[in-house]
Structures are given as structure tokens and as C-alpha cells.
Amino acid sequence: MTLLLPESTKIVIWNVDARPWHVHGLGAGREGVTLIGQTGHMFAPVSLLVSEGARQDGATFLRSVRHKKEMDLLVFIRGRTVRDFQAIHDAWFRGWSTDRPCTIGTFTHHQGWRYQQVQLDSAPEPQGDVDPAKNAAITFQMSVTAMDPLTRHFDETVTWTNTLGLNEGVLRMRNAADQVAWPRYTMPGPGRYWIQDPTDSDGLRIVQTPILLAGETLRIDSHPRHRTARVYSAAHPSGRNVWGQLAGRRWLASLPPWSSTDIVVRVSDGGTTESAVTGTVSPRSSRPY
């Protein structure tokens, strides 16, 4: 409950070993490190791809592209004694890597938690005294890069269960972020499932899954960059690929930003009152709050 009391933004950094450092907001500096400044952290860098020609005025918009996010952190390291400072200083930098990402979590009352993974991209620069042992404290400027410039929210999950035996229902899926989202679906056997393409108001595009047997679970990722459909069972605990059995059928639309979308789902060919469809959305935003 104390997390909700202060109004200031809370920032926690989990290093490569998942050790938390409370650097801003409630509990800031409890591990000996405080974030006193940062730049480049707010919006994902973006550029527009356009086409231009001698026979047109101006340009024609093609698409927008988001680039890696480069940030600078100004951190203050302080210990109660010189020995304490040296232990904190060592633990802090042991937890950073150019090859493995750390996680920065940002909490606000309005948006909740958002997360971004960053890697050290240059040598940290000490600011001020050449010997921090004089006062057991030092400030560093650290440059980090987020390969994925978008921040992630907690997953949002909704489930329809065929409790009434009507073999049809609706998943109301929410995308509480400023970027589009592609749902993931989980369905237990037995039966064959039908899932509507998001934003198809006429309900004409319904994607049909392969028939599942009792004890099998189908998991589908509809994202166009990593479309997958795998069936898990006791005989195939690591899953078997069934994307080919969709016969080219796939979802063409994503969930729009800041939207709630009703998706019609059905079950047939042996479905029971325990048949269910679970839809999961991983919202992603261009800013930490």
C-alpha cells in the first residue's frame, strides 16, 4: 500500500542478475544509488519514410520507423563509509553489461508499471573528484541503449468459456497503449475453434484452427513477425508446429491503440462446456509514462 502514497514517479532498475535498485521515488537510494537525471528516456525515436519525385510537390508518406532508444543516466553512488561505498560501487557496475540487458521499470499512479530493457553502450564517465574515497560518494554519467524502443506493460488477459454450451461467445480485448497489438490465443482440446479477425465489424473473416484432441492445448501468436501455432500435449511437451494446417488462413488486423475490441469466438467438432479461448495482449508504448 505504501507504493500508492507518494505522487512522485517510482523508478527501479533490475540488473543483469535481477537485483533491484530503487533509484527514484519511494525508497530511492535504499541500496546506495540514486538517479539524479536522465535524458532520451521519454519517446521512442522515430523517422518517416517518404518517396519524392520530380513530378510531384513535396513527398508521399510511406510509413514511420522507430529506431533504438539511446538514453543517458546520471547516477549518484554514496555509502555510509568508504568501505561501504566501495562495496556499493562494485555491486552496481557488476550488474551492468554491454551484452546482457538490464530492466528499467517505471511506475506512475495513472499508468502503473512499464518496463524497458537497456544495455550499457559506452564506458561510464565519472563526474567530479578523481578520488571518491574522499567523501564516499561519486556521480556517474552512464549511456545505455534500448534495442526495442517501446516500453512494455503487464499482459492483459481475458477468457471466454463455453459454460452455457452455446458454442459461441465474445472476447473483449483491451489494448491500453499507443502502439497496435497482436493478440495471442490459447485453446484446450477437444474441438475445433474459430476466431474472428480483429476490427472486422462484419465478422466475415473467421480463422479456423485444426481439430484438437482431448489433452491437447493449442497456442497461437498472430503477430506477423513471429506467427506461430503449436499444439502441446503429454506426447509433445515442447509442442508441435501446426501453422501449416491453418492452410494460409491468418489474422490480418491488429488491435488499434487505446481500444477495446470484441472478437467473436466459436467451438465445434467435439467442443464441450469446458472449451475455452484465452486471449492475451502485451501492450507497448512509446514512452515510460
Describe this structure in words.
With 289 residues, the chain is mainly beta. The chain contains 1 helix and 22 strands. The chain has one helix at 82-94, and strands at residues 10-14, 20-24, 33-39, 46-51, 60-66, 69-78, 102-108, 112-120, 125-127, 137-146, 151-152, 156-161, 168-175, 184-188, 192-196, 206-208, 217-221, 228-232, 240-241, 259-268, 276-281, 284-285. Strands 1, 2, 3, 6, 7, 8, 9 and 10 form an 8-stranded antiparallel sheet that branches. A 6-stranded antiparallel sheet has the order 12-21-14-17-18-19, with no helix packed on it. The longest helix is centred in the N-terminal third of the chain and has 13 residues, at 82-94.
Structure described in brief:
The chain is mainly β and 289 residues long.
Judging from the principal axes of the Cα atoms, what is the shape? elongated
Number of separate strands: 22
Order of helices and strands: EEEEEEHEEEEEEEEEEEEEEEE
* Separation, N- and C-terminal Cα atoms: 20 Å
- Rg from alpha-carbon coordinates: 24 Å
As residue ranges, the low-confidence spans are none
Number of helices: 1
Keywords:
22 strands, mainly beta, elongated, 6-stranded antiparallel beta sheet, 8-stranded antiparallel beta sheet, 1 helix
Mind sketching the topology for me?
Elements (H helix, E strand, L loop, with lengths): L9 E5 L5 E5 L8 E7 L6 E6 L8 E7 L2 E10 L3 H13 L7 E7 L3 E9 L4 E3 L9 E10 L4 E2 L3 E6 L6 E8 L8 E5 L3 E5 L9 E3 L8 E5 L6 E5 L7 E2 L17 E10 L7 E6 L2 E2 L4
Antiparallel strand pairs: 1-2, 1-7, 3-6, 4-5, 6-10, 7-8, 8-10, 9-10, 11-22, 12-21, 13-20, 14-17, 14-21, 15-16, 15-20, 17-18, 18-19
